[in-house]
Amino acid sequence: MAADPLGSGPPVFGREARHPLAGRRRVVDVVATVALLVLLAAESVAAGGGIVFLSLAFGSCAAPGNTCDQAFGGAVVAVGPVLVAVVLVATLVVCVLRLVRRKLTWPFALVGVAAVVAVFSGAVLLVDSAITHGV
To answer: What is the pLDDT of residue 47?
Structure first.
């Protein structure tokens, strides 16, 4: 078979550039990242709802001897879910950009999970500090 001088034959593809993380390690990274992002989304919904439910702690303010800083507690309950959403969106953006660039990504998703836990724990501690229980 002679070579086609017009180049009208089927295209011939060369070897595509491969990233060092190609193959099994790349698949493991993508699967781990997606699993952690799904966990992060579920955790964010639970943490945001939990922070909103912290406002129920102010029901004990009417009890004799209890004092509450309702402005501070209300600010924590209002800002907490927003911070959770910011962590979720920032983690999603960073992870998607790193996945597209074929860089190791799962540690960033894990940091996002830990950041949501930190935001929720901080909100619980701040709301608890806004309420002083009497006798």
So the answer is: 97
